[in-house]
Specification:
The chain has 268 residues and is an alpha+beta fold. It contains 8 helices and 9 strands. A hairpin with a 2-residue loop joins strand 4 and strand 5. It is elongated. The mean pLDDT is 90. This is AraC family transcriptional regulator. It comes from Candidatus Pristimantibacillus lignocellulolyticus. Keywords: DNA-binding, Transcription, Transcription regulation. GO terms for molecular function: DNA-binding transcription factor activity; sequence-specific DNA binding.
Amino acid sequence: MTNEKLLYIGRIIERTNWSFPSHHHPNWSEIIFVVKGEGVVTISGERYAVQEGDLLVYNQGIIHEEYSSTTKPLETYYCGISHPDRSLLIPLENRPIIKTKQNRDTIESLFSLIYEESQQQREDFQEASEYLLMTLMIWVRRLSELELSTKRLERDSESLAIRIKDYLDLNYLRHISLNDIANAFHMNAYYLSHVFRSKYNDSPINYILNRRMGEAKQLLVQTTMKVSEIAQLLGYENTNYFTILFKRIMGESPSQFRKREWKERINL
């Protein structure tokens, strides 16, 4: 059995204008599961929007407050848990709001069973409640660690995507392939492309192409360089190929673009 003990369990059912101002539990922790509705909670000074399927974990001593939406009032289960060794339910670095997602039904069922056992108080209900609580706590910690791992992976992926973009910005004049980029980062080309697209909604190769065309537009507007000279500067040996690419992406030829821009622009 776990050292954690169930102190109380309750339900809040769609009470409009429900709120619980700032408070803390000095000697116990609390878990809340959102069955329905929406609301806003503040935990250690940070505000979170909560909705159906969210699991809220308040370690003992943490200051928090809760407010229900008036149009979509919260329906929740909540329970208080004591710790003889004053340990934390989840590490402080873990996010106190957990998205249960596909595990929503499991969490709600555990709360429902604990509530039913505590309410009806049949034979051995305390022992049954303690076993159910132990199972619930396994799930809480499991989902908390999973969410932390996911957040770390997202941060790592975002950092990688930024580094890839920096690399592309430095090398956009080179005609490099996706495999060349992947080799520079010592990783699989498919994974690299996936990470970049997740952040920038574009492929690395298409980003390079659009970057070149953006530079081409600047040169067409700001200089009197010939189209062939701009093509050469951007790494295109064949001016006709450059013109075809420019027109495909920009919707008009380099000469048409320059003529229109010069006509519309007033340089002082």
